[in-house]
Amino acid sequence: MLEHEIDDYKAKTPRSRALFEEALRVMPGGNSRTTTFFDPYPFYISRGSGARIWDADGVERLDFNGNYTSLILGHAHPAVVTAIQETAAHGMSFPGPSELEIRLAEILTQRIPTMEAIRFANSGTEATMHAIRVARAFTGRSKIAKFEGAYHGTHDWVLVSISPDPAQAGSRKRPKSVAWSAGVPPAVLKHVLVLPWNDLAACTAILEKHAADLAALIIDPMLANAGMIPAREGFLEGLREVTARLGILLIFDEVISFRVASGGAQERFGIRPDLTTLGKIIGGGLAVGAFGGRADVMNFYDPRGGRGRINHGGTFNANPLTMAGGVATLEQLSAEAYARLDALGNRLRDGVRRMLKRKKHPGQVTGTGSLFWLHWTKRRLSDFRSARPDDSTVPQQVFMGLVNEGVLMSQRGLGACSLVMTDADVDRFVEALGRVLDRQI
Prior knowledge:
The protein is an alpha/beta fold. Helices cover 39% and strands 14% of the residues.
């Protein structure tokens, strides 16, 4: 059970425990990223190479987390390292633009035709914040809509109904807006409508009722942080139709889903949003964000002649190191690379399904391309609520068990394959998961 896994973990990671105790003296909770913390303490990573990482105690693990899906080429890819090193030799950052900013913008706007214009930031959080801001400026409306269970960063306007208690979240068809964090002002909840995933009729009714006040609907087209629940046939298309009809800007948050195709999920699913937000893989492992879309909307950021109606600063926006890492990464992502990533993801999901069926275990796996999510419920998966585990302790048991098996993914169940992985790496994941289930559940 979980206690045994924790005891095994402690025995393997004494150096990480000592580092954690040091960290507690200078940081609240000992860290700067809540998502990376887990009891009794996180292991401290000393290096990464390819598909593997090593912790402070020298323990090697196969990495299906990839810094929360950011490292599509794996750790320390030679082409990316070389590009960043060569750029760093000429300067880390400057009080002005560099040519690399243009090159990465060209690549992204070519791959994503709906991004007629683009701007860079330093995180996915900043990207969604600015996309929402410009939607408000363009429409003159103040409210936004998002989906229950969807995560779009850590600014106030999206810290709503990310993992609400169903007892407080209202009905499935008309979810209530629930703050996900202390410090979110009550006024925010009045300006953020929450929609039910995969219920087009209910979504349409809510959007039509509030259309006069709604600036934007922001969507993660794969609902990646709420279980990667597939959109039903016609759902995304229906949302595109109703938002266009009502003058509501459609924002695709592709911070995670951009890795599923050269042009992201919007290419894969055939949807044309008004605005798109990016992050993670487009920075080559460095901090990055980007947002863009229709030129008439993005022109609110045009500063020429002092006419810019939205100020967008940022000391490290489009810094040359990040731009170099992004260009080098995207240059590796050919059609053949995406086909290989799809094959790895399909092999993993098929392997997990066969293993669960063989063991008669009530688990499920979802995902697209190189992304996957493990679910621990018998229910038919349709939305955030249906994806909640039957036993809330199981995801942590599985996570800790895999850590002890030398395999890493996220605590909640999200995982990703990287291009440097082999079929044997994927098979090792499935086999390790099987052993964890045998001894725990």
